[in-house]
Queue: 2 jobs
Job 1
Amino acid sequence: MRKKNSSATETEDETRVSDGDETLIIESTEISEDGSVATEHSNLVSRTVYKTVYAVTFGVVFSSLLVSRLIVPKDSMVAKALHDGTIAAKKAVEEKEQLIVEVAQETVDILAGGEPTGVPL
């Protein structure tokens, strides 16, 4: 642990944590008298959340692709249904995303005092 700055009311510490080939730098900031800032291990928490989500996503997608490619014959109706269902799901997500953007823009317009554009909900 290496101290960067030290005073009676404020200290900043830097800790290096080795994670395989990567080195995480964790900064700790404490303001003891007013107590407004107390951030510790934020990079470690962020990295842990990222790795957890990555592992879950990889597991779901990898197993789905493995099952679909090993068990389902390429030119079968099941393979066609999987393909068509994937395309339909992507299109539905894009449509919902566009609707959310339009509703958010209309909300901003209403809050700014403008007229609503008539986006159907």
Note: Confidence is low (pLDDT under 50) at residues 1-14.
Job 2
Amino acid sequence: MRYMLLIYQEETTNTRSEAEREQSMASHWAVIDETSKLGILQGVSPLQPTSTATTIRMKEGKKVVLDGPFAETKEQLGGYYILECKDLDEAIGWANKLPLSCSGGQGSIEIRPLGTLPERKGPTAEREYAGAHNG
């Protein structure tokens, strides 16, 4: 089962020393290296600050593009891991190896199983594109 480990943190609080930041990154690199060796790492990435975000919402029946996040929260999504784990206990074990204060104050890690897309019915976009350009 694939699990996404969503790393939440406070963006505005950054009172950690350089040594603390380096120790945090070393913890991340250790998990990245170990999960890569085991072949269970499917994806990992930090996210840019929420000030760089763009949100699309419905307003009066039309899609509207907004700068930044829509909701004000204490913790923001700062990054993620996608791991292929045998069960939730294994995913929790990996999450416990990650620091909870990546770029500032205390944070949290949400573990969520990834679902699967339903089987696609009808032509794929690739076939539609090819058919439209074959004259």
Note: The CA atoms of residues 50 and 72 lie 10 Å apart.
